[in-house]
Specification:
The protein is mainly β. 11% of the residues lie in helices and 46% in strands. The chain has one domain (4-564): Porin (Beta Barrel).
Amino acid sequence: MLFSPAIAHAQDQKQGGEPKNLPEDAKAEVQKHEDLSSVPEDLDRLIFDTGRVKVKKAEQDKLSIEIHGELQLRGQAQNPFPMDVSAGTLDTHPGAISDSLGQHAFFTQWVRLTPRLQYRDWLQVVVQLNLFQDYVFGDTTHDVSPDYYARDDLRDAWAYLELRWAYAQFLTKIGLIRVGQMSNHWGMGILANDGDHPSLFGDYRGGNLVEQVLFATKPAGKDSPFAIVLGGNLVYQDWQARLYRGDIAAQGVLAGFYDKGPNQIGVFATIRSQNTDKTAAPYAGYTDNIVAAAVDVAGHFATPVPGNPSTYLYGAGELAFILGSTNQLRSPNQALTGQNTTIASYGFAASLGVVHETRHEGAAPSGDPSTWGDVAAQLEVGYASGDANPYDTTEHRFTFDPNHKVGLLLFDEVMRWQTARASAAAQDPLLQNGARPTPGVNLLASNGGVFGAEYIYPTVIVRPRPWLDLKAGAVIAGTTTDLVDPYRVATQGNYVNYRGGDAKRHDLGIELDGGFEFRIKLDRALRLQLGAQAGVLFPGGAFADASGSIMNAPYMVMGRAGMQF
């Protein structure tokens, strides 16, 4: 849902209940029918229990203050995989043809705090803080700085204190108004993602943050399922811009959707103008500019399986297009003529799943929910357009928001760091023979998002007890165009992959993931999480070198501990 916290608060004010003007026996029959055909309000918890503590609903005549949050610890070990050579490696190993990330075992942690003030049912003030996100104990990466969270510990201490949200929200007779710093989320999160949605495998990081004024209303009345959202914002940070880095990105947003119970369909459109003043030399200044529009259609549904009211079928889908122009990506010829690069990219994702609800026989043990989803299986498919020629006059590459997680390893580790290293190498004057980097190479890093690829992603959760998840998944993926390393094109003129192999081999391989998690309720609003995840990638031909030799299988193991409060 777009700006989901804002609209959800407005939806809490809907008027509903049992049918009016019916005899008691008729009311009972209607209620019975509704019970058999309805979907539980907490269906999301039956599918994937995040362990988070629910925010209390606002009360008509009260002032309430709540502070929720989490402390998360991660320990990760992984084997090296080949990437573009770095300048540092050439200093110590002249003639080297490949390098690795340099990070084999490390710990990270973060603290997220969300204080919330609610006054009656018409005012909320919300703040969210991150502390020490992505701070690394142990091995660090090297020469992958274009990644926004490079795990290299090159930031100063203040960089690990992040104000994510600081906004006020007013519910009026004509609609909802929100003002301040906030994040946006729409649909499955492949385009607009708030970085606050836990995933089955991996962890969220970052998310889009904007200084925004937003207005949401139901023009046909508060009981209507139709809503419209209008917004204007200045981007504080996202995967394309950082205000504190000098990127000035302004956006206008218009969205409309139909929302009824677990079913929703809608469309949102945004137009963006981004400018960054730069200086190539003391005597030469220029401005990078992006003007682009995005249209995104998304929806989701859930329904009981006929004949089995304890089993629910659910699904979601999202299709996004981006059109525009920019001079931030341009060839030397374009720089001379002033011709802009056209942006034309698209991506989609869709999922379909089934979950079975079970319940305790008799009273539930203290701290356990009375019902839970004992089996949840889902299949997701996705597609992101790619670009086999990174230096022509059209940019076709679509990159999912990195917080839309697909597996644990292929996109969030291997492709993430290969693109970050290529971007770093393409900007390094020691590797470019002192030449000025080609404009736009700083944008090559995927940051872990799916790009230029299509995939099938089946997952399953088996929950023998409400506090124990056993989960497994697989990713089968290939590229949607030739896989081309932009660094090797710029320096060698060769259209080859990130290992110097045949770019026309599109098979990315098969990834297998598994994990478990315990959730222990220590108090009414305090929950301990303990678990582990692991993944292995069996690489396909897209990871072959010039001789046709495919790299060894990358793997990773992650220990997880957390506290939700």
